[in-house]
Write a structure and sequence with these properties.
By secondary structure, this protein is mostly helical. It is built from twelve helices and no strands. Helix 1 runs antiparallel to helix 10 (251-279), helix 5 (126-155) packs antiparallel against helix 9 (220-246) and helix 6 crosses helix 9 (220-246). The chain starts with a helix and ends in a 7-residue tail after the last helix.
């Protein structure tokens, strides 16, 4: 029996839970010590170190895997144990309300009620609808392109043995590029998401055009440069995503909104990833890059136009129902 499938399933569940919990924990920790501005700085610094260490670990794991397949797994287990020990040192920022233990059915109903209230807030909030629409288009594109990247490298003649080194270097570039987040935000302000998304889409179209016209090793440097730009865009986006999502939220509602946001984005990205994979059965990966890029460009331009009057406004320009969660019951 192939246990890799079950291991990946458990990993995906744990990773999603961790992603939701860690950003909210960090936001709560700094909410009384500089607030949103401090959160953004710490998250960017942590994200930068994460990508750099991830790149280094990928390089090391590639060499260790050749020596013995189990060495990277054992090292990973060691880090997991250290993480568990560290997590026991975390303390609640806000007082936890101790409630009587409820049955499974009641607990499920409570979570269902939380999910329902979050959906009601999103439906009423023009700001959240615009942000989620952007997430669906951009995150789905990222997931589709992630499935195409390796296929294209094989198509242009790069040996699979070099993939780990290439993607590790790209991850390092992603970490280093986070130092550009503040200058980009400062310069572009509420046009930052437009800049990142359109640049990412532009690389997809360039890859599609170049690889369709030219063949051989001559286009490899151009493709790798485009991959590096994509990694820079996604690294900065993931940091900004958490910041924008948590703006205007309070502690008791932050987890609900984050879960609903991730739930919608994950479902949409999964569906479009499957459709992107099916496209490869009809056309080659080079043309797929071009077609997906053009479709994404049309969708993104429409999304950005929709967002213009709904997202990135000044706080006093929003209506209460756009930013205040408690207004959903009124």
């Amino acid at each position: 029996m192939d246990f890799t499938y079950y291991a990946d399933l458990i990993f995906s569940l744990g990773y999603d839970i961790k992603t939701i919990a860690e950003t909210n924990l960090l936001y709560d920790s700094v909410s009384t010590k500089g607030g949103e501005g401090l959160y953004s700085k710490i998250d960017a610094k942590g994200g930068s170190l994460y990508y750099i260490l991830d790149g280094i670990a990928s390089l090391v794991a590639g060499y260790l895997f050749v020596i013995n397949n189990y060495i990277p797994m054992l090292i990973c287990l060691g880090f997991a144990i250290i993480s568990i020990i560290l997590s026991f040192g975390f303390q609640d920022i806000y007082e936890v309300k101790r409630e009587k233990k409820s049955g499974l059915v009641k607990t499920v109903k409570e979570y269902g009620g939380d999910l329902k209230s979050s959906f009601k807030f999103i439906i009423k909030s023009k700001r959240m609808k615009a942000f989620i629409l952007f997430q669906i288009v951009f995150y789905s594109l990222i997931e589709i392109i992630d499935t195409y990247n390796s296929d294209l490298l094989v198509n242009v003649g790069i040996p699979e043995q070099q993939f780990s080194m290439i993607f590790a270097i790209l991850t390092l570039i992603g970490g280093i590029s986070l130092s550009l987040k503040r200058p980009i935000e400062k310069k572009l302000k509420n046009r930052t998401l437009s800049f990142l998304s359109l640049m990412y889409i532009g690389t997809c179209i360039i890859i599609g055009v170049i690889s369709s016209i030219y063949t051989g090793a001559t286009i490899i440097p151009i493709i790798l440069i485009m991959y590096a730009i994509q990694k820079m865009c996604t690294s900065i986006w993931y940091i900004l995503e958490s910041k924008y999502l948590k703006n205007f939220t309070k502690e008791e509602e932050r987890n609900k909104i984050t879960f609903t946001y991730e739930f919608i984005g994950g479902i949409a990205a999964s569906i479009f990833s499957v459709l992107g994979g099916l496209l490869l059965k009809i056309i080659n990966v080079k043309n797929a890059f071009l077609i997906i890029g053009i479709v994404a460009l049309i969708c993104m331009l429409a999304t950005l136009k929709y967002m213009k009057t709904r997202f990135g406004l000044k706080p006093n320009e929003y209506k209460k129902e756009d930013i205040e969660f408690e207004n959903i019951e009124k």
